[in-house]
Amino acid sequence: RAQRNTATSMLVAVFLCALVSAAAAAGGESSDVAVLTTSNFDGTLKDYEYVLVEFFAPWCGHCKQLAPEYEKAATALKEYTNLKVATVDATVEQSLAQAHGVRGYPTLKFFKNGVSSDYTGGRTAPKIISWLLKAIGAPMKSLDTADAVNELISGKGPTVVAFVAEPSADFEAVSVSNGQSEVPYYVSSKAVATALGEAFPSVVVYKTGEAKAVHTGPFTADAITTFVNIERIPLVIPFTMEAAQEVFQSKLGKIAFLFATAPIPAFTEAAQLYRGKFVFSTSDGSVTRLNDHVGVTTADFPKFIILTTDGQMKRYPLTGEVTLASIKAHIDAFLAGSLQPSLKSEEPPAANDEPVKVVVGKTFDDIVMDPTKNVLLEVYAPWCGHCKTLAPIYDELAKAVADVPNLVIAKMDGTANEIDGVSWRGFPTLKFYPANTKVRAGVDYSGGRDLEALKSYVLEQASATGSAASASKEEL
User: Is 17 in the active site?
Assistant: First the structure.
């Protein structure tokens, strides 16, 4: 299922798949999530006007990561008697999965009066709750007393409460903003605002471990949405597996990362100065896969790096001491467009004489972009099971076409190398680069991954450029 971008999605997928396998796949004892099978699926759709269904696989890392958030959402929404949150084990109920077009896990479908549509919201409890409340047309919940507000915000965050008159133009602006936000809003009165010492009218984002943020104008939907989207994100997010989605999938599209074993106050000061322009996150190095993907080691600490996540992930590391002045200068240069990204690359192998040629970042242009060569490139990950399955077939392919002029079978470790203008959705990814008409992005191969399919494809492509005169498809 497509995420907001390719390189970033792959990174987040790596993190999520590494989450502890002990997490429940979905549902469980005393669960507010209904478990659906072929025997009760249709009946549930008849009993409830609205049903959100997650089709999952017990072994799926993404499903395990979603499970606790899904459960929290189901519990929070159980007061809505016309709505049910449910799961289907697609590995058991295969006919249901096939009937509803399930091609990956988890797949979430929203049913209104039995009619299915795709769920397009986030995968944290607040985002699921917000999306569903909007989908079922639920109004913003009213908090009628100061105690109700205090109970709601106690130990939770972020929570958005609008203190506005109802009805009013301010209330309408808040309502529109609520429809644009990924978190639900609550509404309260002037009397409650006075009891709590809050301004009226105002929109307040209450936070845990951080001072609340207050918006007193302008009262337009766009202004309120911008305010909430900025303030609902913690000033600095300590990076963990659980925080990966919040950090890497933020709509800001830019991360300011500090890798350090101890806090550096200058980083927090910078976060205050540039809040709303970046997600600020810290890592102590304990999430080793983050280190690997970003390209840092503990020997580099402390290290400040800007990452872009709104397209191909690019890295902009700061060279030298990490101070407030150096962080500000680095950020200002980035915002001015005067920094160049740093791309990861392994060192080229001392010998590259195996049938499958090894490509690294430093040799991509020489090998893959050679205008005289047809190149099939596999982008793989050392830990990827599908890549390991493909490896012997890929070796056989390289041997089988070794005599075809100007045809190169190559591979590149996608976790250790980055190429400007080249991205991949997962591992393994196969791309073909025809001679004479090179484009950095390449042509994605989507055919079979058996020897015959691969051989037929590369010979056909090579023939199209006049480079396979000595080979014929009859060899198959």
Answer: no
